[in-house]
Design a protein that fits this description.
Structural class: mainly beta
Number of helices: 1
Low-confidence stretches: 1-17, 325-330
Distance between the termini: 50 Å
CATH class of the largest domain: Mainly Beta
Strand order of the largest sheet: 1-28-27-26
Number of domains: 2
CATH architecture of the largest domain: 7 Propeller
Shape: globular
Radius of gyration: 20 Å
CATH superfamily of the largest domain: YVTN repeat-like/Quinoprotein amine dehydrogenase
Mean pLDDT: 89
Largest sheet: 4 strands, antiparallel
Helix content: under 10%
CATH topology of the largest domain: Methylamine Dehydrogenase, Chain H
Length: 404
């Protein structure tokens, strides 16, 4: 089913103007404008995988790590990055993965158990395991040990991205093999025969209803929690003729349920950018709106709900987001004490019995989950590291800080 961009041009212009775009380049301290991936640390630091090393951004300055300054880094040509809940930074390259513990890097390769040294994506699972998508399969790091998975469990083409279902399923974006689901014991492939627009995948995002928004080379396919096809979005980013299909490079679902999708086309024309889906409409952002460039690689969300966009020509932060603003309303929701040390209490002005209540870290990972009952709900935050977090209940979301 084609999903048209239905907003009028005048409204589109108004909404685009409502967002704030801030862009950084080499002149601002980046080691290169070629930014491949982005991750948000629990303390709010923005970590970047670039073509000239790793960069950490604290909001004002960039700190750059290279093989010269940090010899344990496998290569300056970094493609994937993840920051785990304990603060370790995992950097994927074509020569293996390097883990930064705050002082130095340690490199790991196939000799240590990786399925391949060419790393495409890294994500931490809710249970603490770290998964690496590689060109020849996937690797799980658990209990200080690597376990490699390859053919035939993961078809030719390897994996390009990792996501997780609330039931513990690991969802791998197959480079050529569709969505590969690992339930802890067996692998199952969901392909075009099951409703996907294409078997060439780049990203998967899972919303609160456990729907899988699957980014393919031909657009987005939406699958339910049982991985059955629901619908498709094929033309949500308007391209000049004759291009119609939307090759997706990344998909992200933010704290209030909006879907952000990156699109890039490099044949016949060079076009790309970000589209966001809210209130059953797609809104499109391009270089002319403030993006660093059309070649969008990966996107991430910080604890403020701002969107960070990596491109081949710089880094962009989208803030002051007013799209679907009514969904962001937090009237009638209070958190105290804030900051908190051991427990946090949520107070509602009306009961939301049975509504899902979730606590997410700065990268949007779900750390705590439950159901709200009555007007008050208390939850334990004593196990959370110091940092910024978000509590989400229904369509409402609010931020809080944990101090130690």
């Amino acid at each position: 089913m084609r999903t048209p961009i239905s907003l009028a041009a005048s409204l589109l212009t108004t909404l685009c103007a409502a967002q704030t775009f801030t862009t950084w380049h080499m002149a601002d301290g980046l080691p290169t404008d070629d930014i491949r991936d982005v991750a948000v640390a629990p303390d709010g630091t923005i970590w970047l995988a670039t073509g000239a090393g790793v960069a950490a951004f604290n909001g004002s300055t960039f700190t750059v790590h290279t093989t010269g300054t940090h010899p344990g880094l496998a290569s300056n040509d970094a493609y994937a990055i993840e920051v785990t809940t304990d603060g370790d930074v995992w950097v994927g390259t074509d020569f293996g993965v390097s883990v930064y513990n705050g002082a130095s890097y340690t490199a790991y390769t196939t000799a240590n158990g990786l399925s391949d040294n060419e790393i495409k994506n890294i994500k931490q699972a809710p249970n603490g395991d770290v998964w690496l998508a590689t060109i020849n399969g996937a690797t799980r790091y658990s209990a200080s040990s690597f376990t490699a998975f390859g053919s035939p469990s993961i078809p030719f083409g390897g994996a390009t991205h990792v996501a997780f279902g609330s039931n513990g399923d690991v969802l791998l974006s197959g480079g050529l093999g569709g969505m590969i689901v690992y339930n802890g014991s067996t692998f199952t492939a969901v392909t075009t025969a099951g409703g996907l627009l294409s078997n060439r995948l780049r990203s998967i995002a899972v919303n609160g209803a456990q729907e899988r928004w699957v980014g393919t080379s031909d657009g987005i396919s939406v699958m339910d929690a049982a991985n059955a096809h629901i619908t498709d979005h094929e033309a949500f980013f308007e391209l000049p003729p004759p291009d119609e299909l939307n090759p997706v490079t990344d998909v992200l679902i933010d704290l209030v349920g909006r879907v952000w999708a990156a699109v890039y086309v490099d044949y016949l024309v060079t076009e790309g950018g970000i589209s966001v889906y809210a209130n059953n409409d797609w809104l499109q952002f391009e270089e002319s709106d403030g993006l660093a460039g059309p070649n969008v690689r990966r996107i991430a969300m910080d604890a403020d709900g701002d969107i960070w966009v990596t491109t081949s020509t710089g880094l962009t932060e989208i803030s002051d987001i007013s799209i679907g603003i009514e969904e962001r309303a937090v009237a009638g929701l209070r958190l105290f004490p804030n900051p908190a040390r051991s427990s946090m209490e949520l107070l509602l002005d009306e009961p939301m019995n049975g509504a899902a209540l979730e606590v997410l870290d700065a990268a949007g990972r779900k750390l705590l989950a439950g159901n709200a009952t009555g007007l008050r709900h208390r939850f334990d935050v004593s196990m959370l590291p110091a940092g910024l977090y978000t509590v989400r209940i229904g369509a409402r979301a609010a931020r809080f800080m944990v101090e130690r």
